[in-house]
Design a protein that fits this description.
CATH class: Alpha Beta
Largest sheet: 6 strands, mixed
Radius of gyration: 18 Å
Distance between the termini: 37 Å
Helix content: 25-40%
Number of helices: 9
CATH architecture: 3-Layer(aba) Sandwich
Strand content: 25-35%
CATH topology: Rossmann fold
Order of helices and strands: EEEHEEHEHHHEHEHEEHH
Number of domains: 1
């Protein structure tokens, strides 16, 4: 039986009279690369923020490695072993790539940063300011920052936003490499190419609720999923 590393239990979030997330149940197994997808307004970003503690749920539980995280703030959840990348890169622009990594390493015993950042395609830029990186390389540095302390679970919000086809493919290879090293991923994404490339499981949200989930193949072949993306009733 698969080990559940993250268990979202009946979580709900309303804003005024609008329900953004409706009683969502979601389980992420250790070793998965699970994608959360859905059309605009499906509740993906809200669910992401509820998981990391950026937003507080009306009710429901976020359970990580069998511990309820409801009482913990964002920074405390990170210390529990969760890596995090928001959609926009959150690197320290006035520091070098290497300095960014040293801060994020959080005393991890990593003697050779060169081997680590070479996997991300930013070895040659290690001594330049992060603010001078291209958008794609900033995204890769941000993924490196989220994963350098060896978290058990990494959450990525739209990691391919603004990337070219080749950069998207490279991002997928980076995530697959980290996954093989033992990192579980939960990824909010709209790009179907990277989903086809690396996803092991997919959960589809629609109007704030869990619509369907399963293997990438089964979800992509689902006619009802196609309908909600096309806006049909």
């Amino acid at each position: 039986m698969s080990e559940v590393i993250l268990n979202i239990n009946k979580i709900k979030k309303t804003f005024g009279g609008f329900t953004a997330v409706k009683d969502v149940d979601l389980k992420v197994n250790k070793g998965e690369i699970r994608f959360i997808i859905g059309p605009n307004g499906a509740g993906k970003s809200t669910l992401f923020k509820l998981i990391i503690g950026y937003l507080k749920a009306d009710y429901g539980d976020v359970i990580f490695k069998e511990e309820n995280l409801n009482k913990f703030e964002l920074h405390q959840r990170i210390k529990k072993g969760i890596g995090l990348k928001f959609q926009a890169p959150s690197v320290f622009n006035e520091m070098t790539v290497l300095q960014n990594l040293e801060i994020a390493a959080n005393q991890t015993n990593l003697n050779d940063y060169n081997d680590f950042i070479d996997r991300f395609g930013i070895l040659e830029e290690k001594n330049i300011l992060a603010g001078d990186l291209s958008h794609g390389k900033k995204q890769w540095l941000d993924i490196a920052l989220a994963s350098i302390s060896n978290p058990d679970l990494v959450l990525l919000d739209e990691p391919t936003a603004g990337l070219s086809f080749d950069e998207t493919k490279k991002t997928g290879e980076i995530i697959k490499y980290l996954n093989k090293q033992g990192t579980t991923f939960l990824i909010v994404e709209h790009d179907m190419e990277i989903l086809k490339q690396i996803a092991t499981a997919v959960s589809v949200l629609h109007l704030g609720a869990l619509f369907v989930e399963g293997s990438p193949q089964s979800v992509l072949k689902n006619k009802d999923v196609a309908k909600i993306y096309l806006g049909a009733s």
